[in-house]
Structure formats: structure tokens, C-alpha cells
């Protein structure tokens, strides 16, 4: 049992913090919308604080899972942020998908304060967070990781230290690059099947048992066929992630032509009001385009 703080109880953070509490850890929580933290405490116990620093005070482990670089800076570096309340030797584990450069910056700030820091973005979405089956890719010091690894087991099916600070975020970019291409290919395949007069459900049933199988096919093909997109990982968030990936690609001299193209397809969806739809809505974009000419 450890003294743990969890900051930001969004779609992912709320169930992740719940798993920590269910494992017997003493939790203090913070959320910018205080009613959300109050609801979590009513459901799980523990205590809520009105600041990130207050929640982090006395905790051995401080977890954060927020939206983007700007949010993360505010929660961690502000006068009432996590670093201001953490005791020497404590470790901050950042589950936000953010820029690798910010991970390096936060690691440097942590070191100056006698704290540990791990960038630890996750994959698996809301369903993975609720089921406790997330994949965690980490960057940071081996010692900090070795100490916190048993606690991460509360909601991880796979975790791996990828290298120094920033390596976790770079690995998450690889994840998002791969997903972008897979979802676009799945959207095109289903679109082709529909226009060809095939029974999409039967097509998926057979090809999902061969080399075309993927997580996206197993978990999104049926909902795509049904035109259901009001759930899951939003287009807005995917564009944020691909923006980071494309920036990093430019820095490292990597070529990402497919990712750049799919990013523009997601931009089309945003412009048509689909920013909050699931990323599988790439099929919706294809279906509203003009039919191909003979």
C-alpha cells in the first residue's frame, strides 16, 4: 500500500485512479472541475484536493493524465502545481500524450527538485482504462521505473521502459502513426466492400481470420459498418497526436507520407464538424465524397 495522488480525472484518469484505489493504495485526487473529483471520492473513497499541489503533498507516487502540453504544464509547473507539493524522492508519472520535448523539460525540472519523472503515455483507450488492460510505454530513469512498475500493474497488461525521458512519448508517436494508416485502410476496405455490393459483416468475418486482422478491425469494423462514431478516441485528439508526430519527424528527418495524408483527412472531418467523432469516422468522410466517375 502506497500514498498516491492522481491528477486529472478525465475519461482515462477516472478509471485508472479507480484501479489504484481498488488495489488498496491511499489516494488523493485533483481535477480542475471539482465536482468530478467529488464524484470519484464518493464512489471510491480517498480524498479530494482543491489544487494539484495539495493532492501531491506527501504522496510517494503522483500520476497525471491530462489533455495536451499546455494543460500538463499548468498541472505540473504552476505555483499550485504538482511539483510545488511533492516531497523529495517522490516520482511523477505522466500518462498524458504530450511532446517529447516537454517530457525532457519536466524531467530536468524534477531532477532539480530532487524528484523522479517518467513520461508514460498509454494505449488502449477508454475501454482499456476501464478494464485495466492498458499498454504503457515509458521514458525515464531505470530506478524510478523499477520502483513504480508493480503499481502500474494495477491497470496495465503491458509496460516497458523505452529509454531516457522522452522515449515513452516517441514510442507513443510510433503507435499513433501505425494506427492512422490502419484506420484509413480499414475505412477504404469497408467502403470498397459496400460499393461492390458485398455483405460487410461476412467480409470482416472471413478476412479478420487472416493477414488483414488488427485491433482496429476487431474493435471498430462493426461500428464503422453501422455508422456509429459517437464514442472512442476523438478526431481532435488524434490530430493533436499526429501533429506531434509530424513535428518530431521533421526534427529527425523521418518521412511520414501516409501519416501526413491521413492527418489531412482528419482535418476534413474537423472542418465538417466531426472533431469529437471517433477516429474510425474516416469511413464517414469517404461516404460523403462524390462517387468515382466511370
Kindly describe this structure.
The protein has 294 residues and is of the alpha/beta class. It has 2 domains: 3-164, 3-Layer(aba) Sandwich (Rossmann fold), CATH 3.40.50.720; 170-288, N-(1-d-carboxylethyl)-l-norvaline Dehydrogenase, domain 2 (Orthogonal Bundle). 54% of the residues lie in helices and 14% in strands. The chain has 14 helices and 9 strands. It has helices at residues 13-22, 34-44, 52-56, 69-77, 82-85, 100-112, 125-131, 142-152, 167-195, 200-207, 215-225, 235-252, 257-271, 282-288, and strands at residues 3-7, 26-30, 47-48, 61-64, 91-94, 116-119, 122-123, 134-140, 156-163. Strands 1, 2, 3, 4, 5, 6, 7, 8 and 9 form a 9-stranded mixed β-sheet that branches. α2 links the parallel β2 and β3 (47-48). α9 crosses α12 (235-252) and α12 packs antiparallel against α13. It is globular. The mean pLDDT is 96.
Amino acid at each position: 500500500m502506497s500514498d498516491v495522488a492522481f491528477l486529472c480525472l478525465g475519461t482515462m484518469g477516472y478509471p485508472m485512479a479507480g484501479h489504484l484505489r481498488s488495489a488498496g493504495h491511499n489516494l488523493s485526487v485533483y481535477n480542475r472541475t471539482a465536482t468530478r473529483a467529488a464524484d470519484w471520492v464518493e464512489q471510491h473513497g480517498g480524498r479530494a484536493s482543491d489544487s494539484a499541489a495539495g493532492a501531491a503533498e506527501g504522496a510517494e507516487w503522483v500520476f497525471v493524465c491530462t489533455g495536451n502540453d499546455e494543460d500538463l504544464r499548468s498541472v505540473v509547473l504552476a505555483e499550485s502545481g504538482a511539483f510545488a507539493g511533492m516531497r523529495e524522492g517522490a516520482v511523477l508519472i505522466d500518462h498524458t500524450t504530450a511532446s517529447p520535448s516537454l517530457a525532457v523539460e519536466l524531467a530536468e525540472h524534477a531532477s532539480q527538485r530532487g524528484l523522479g519523472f517518467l513520461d508514460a503515455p498509454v494505449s488502449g483507450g477508454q475501454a482499456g482504462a476501464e478494464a485495466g488492460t492498458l499498454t504503457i510505454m515509458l521514458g525515464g530513469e531505470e530506478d524510478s521505473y523499477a520502483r513504480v512498475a508493480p503499481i502500474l500493474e494495477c491497470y496495465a497488461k503491458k509496460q516497458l521502459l523505452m529509454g531516457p525521458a522522452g522515449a515513452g512519448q516517441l514510442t507513443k508517436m510510433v503507435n499513433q502513426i501505425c494506427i492512422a494508416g490502419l484506420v484509413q485502410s480499414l475505412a477504404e476496405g469497408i467502403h470498397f466492400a459496400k460499393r461492390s455490393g458485398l455483405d460487410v459483416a461476412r467480409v470482416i468475418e472471413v478476412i479478420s481470420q487472416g493477414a488483414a486482422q488488427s485491433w482496429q478491425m476487431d474493435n471498430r469494423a462493426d461500428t464503422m459498418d453501422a455508422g456509429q462514431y459517437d464514442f472512442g478516441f476523438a478526431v481532435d485528439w488524434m490530430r493533436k497526436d499526429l501533429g506531434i508526430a509530424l513535428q518530431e519527424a521533421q526534427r529527425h528527418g523521418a518521412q511520414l507520407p501516409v501519416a501526413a495524408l491521413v492527418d489531412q483527412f482528419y482535418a476534413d472531418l474537423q472542418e465538417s464538424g466531426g472533431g469529437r467523432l471517433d477516429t474510425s469516422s474516416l469511413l464517414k468522410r469517404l461516404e460523403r465524397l462524390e462517387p468515382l466517375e466511370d
